[in-house]
Amino acid sequence: xxxxxxxxxxxxxxxxxxxxxxxxxxxxxxxxxxxxxxxxxxxxxxxxxxxxxxxxxxxxxxxxxxxxxxxxxxxxxxxxxxxxxxxxxxxxxxxxxxxxxxxxxxxxxxxxxxxxxxxxxxxxxxxxxxxxxxxxxxxxxxxxxxxxxxxxxxxxxxxxxxxxxxxxxxxxxxxxxxxxxxxxxxxxxxxxxxxxxxxxxxxxxxxxxxxxxxxxxxxxxxxxxxxxxxxxxxxxxxxxxxxxxxxxxxxxxxxxxxxxxxxxxxxxxxxxxxxxxxxxxxxxxxxxxxxxxxxxxxxxxxxxxxxxxxxxxxxxxxxxxxxxxxxxxxxxxxxxxxxxxxxxxxxxxxxxxxxxxxxxxxxxxxxxxxxxxxxxxxxxxxxxxxxxxxxxx
Length: 393
Ligand code: SF4
Ligand code: SF4
Fold this sequence. Notes:
Elements: E1 6-7, E2 13-15, H1 37-41, H2 54-58, H3 66-77, H4 86-94, H5 100-103, H6 111-122, H7 130-136, H8 141-147, E3 167-168, H9 172-177, H10 179-188, H11 203-207, H12 211-224, E4 233-235, H13 238-248, E5 253-255, H14 256-266, E6 278-279, E7 282-283, E8 285-289, H15 292-297, H16 302-311, E9 313-315, H17 330-333, H18 335-351, E10 356-359, H19 362-374, E11 381-383, H20 384-392
Parallel strand pairs: 3-4, 4-5, 8-9, 8-10, 10-11
Antiparallel strand pairs: 1-2, 6-7
This protein binds iron/sulfur cluster (2 copies).
């Protein structure tokens, strides 16, 4: 049991941080400069975020909550915790980075940025989890997968970015494992080009302890996609959309469900003929798994639901907005916790008797397709553009 207090807005200690290994009662001894001071001080320790946190639901102890993690960050920052403290390493990895805590926080705490700053410090040198090191070197993963016959043929590019067009981003995971998603996106947004020479957006790096890598890749992508000239990056990955928005500005990126919903609502004549999707002669029942970053960081929730309703009966699944356990590297770093979250998702989709489960992020697609296979379920997991493309056929 620790003696680290969680301070209430009044400044008084309210509860301990159970399971902690270090002595934390001493006065601050340093300012390490790991975190942005204003962001770190914003938390008022009200605890409103606790019920929103999926890891707190799995392990209802303070250290596994957003408030508990911010307490740990503060102790790291001011020298009350040694950077080698095992609880720091444990909790930096146990957080999903889903940012659900931000949506309910009355103080506007930017938890996602704090987590990036924490991992940037925590996951260095010998403290870098091997899986994280491999993911940061993601540019080397694709050739390995290609040799293993896992990579599918990526969508063809169309040359340099053409001024004024939306520029479809292929994405590392998607171009490697789900090229049909990009093909479907091209069919639905015929005005988009697919610029050559586009690389990773850097989300993977930023979420895995390499802030500099996250910034560098995002800005390189922005240059390829003519963002400085006012053009917009069109992405099919909610996680990439949030990272690009953070690095290059919200106007530089549009996620495909918000693009289609916006375009078709503003001018219905732009919407192609879509036939209703039928299963056994009745309208298909379709559920959705939100992308955490699309929902929690960018606030896009209505667009994918509205698009599904154009072609099928939409079924709101319980906790569609909470994390599926994919969370970037989480399914590799924390497989047991990731599977617990995944099993809930699969069983809820099965209980709702949906015919399709739709996603708006390739990491979720990979995770949920794996979960369906493990559960011997035949519910297909489709990206929203794959579902809509079926209605074009
Ligand atoms: S992160 Fe926000 S909601 Fe959570 S304890 Fe701090 S101020 Fe309250
Ligand atoms: S990012 Fe998600 S898992 Fe991490 S503290 Fe916030 S709500 Fe919990």
